[in-house]
Amino acid sequence: MTCVVQRGLGPNAVVGGMRISYLARSDETGDGLGIYRVDMDPRTPGAGLHRHARLTETFSVEAGRLALHVSDTDHVLGPGDFALIPPGIAHAFANRSEEPVRFTLSFAPALGREGFFEGLAQLAAEGRLSDRVAMTDLMARYDQEPLAGFAGWSDASG
Fold first, then answer.
1. Which of 130, 87, 89 is nearest to 111 (CA)?
2. How far, CA to CA in Å, does 89 sit from each of 55, 57, 78, 144, 149?
3. If you write DSSP's letter for every residue of 85-154 in order, what string do you get?
């Protein structure tokens, strides 16, 4: 399958200071792969500590500095840096810097990941990112297991 993306301007999902633009949607790839551009404002939380049972996740930084926690190690990724997180590995990310960050995020298989981003955007708009029941339900539907509560979703310093 060939896919040429010309979607125009604007993100598909907004979660606080994080904007997600869909590059290769799960419905365009037979759910085998999802690719997303992520733009994060300075001092913006990304994802609290979590892991996936089935998903492989990648991060490819284009601009800025992305704080990435993998297993028990903290990393700061800059332009050109890449990380691959296999299933079962604990990880979290945030923009802890004073500059914006842009990176490409991918998931294989995609498992309808756009639904997760849209669910997060809705919870953020409602001020419910710390709602344990709502977040647990959303994560359970999209192969995401929280490992340290939900503070990392609303606090970039953690």
1. 87
2. 10, 10, 21, 11, 16
3. E-TT--EEEEE-SSS-EEEEEEEES-TTHHHHHHHHHHHHHTT-TT-HHHHHHHHHHTT-EESS-SGGGT
Q: What is the pLDDT of residues 13-31, one digit of tens each?
A: 999 999 999 999 999 899 9
| CA angle (8 as vertex; 18, 37 as ends), nearest 5 | 35
Q: How far apart are CA 122 and CA 143, in angstroms?
A: 18
First to last CA, the chain: 41
152: left (phi over 0), alpha (psi -120 to 50) or beta: alpha
pTM of model > 0.70:
yes
**What percentage of residues in the chain have a pLDDT greater than 90?**
77
Contact yes or no for 128/134 (Cβ under 8 A): yes
Q: Report the alpha-carbon angle 115-66-152, nearest 5.
A: 60
Question: What CATH architecture applies to the domain 13-153?
Answer: Sandwich (2.60)
Is 70 exceeded by the pLDDT of residue 44?
A: yes
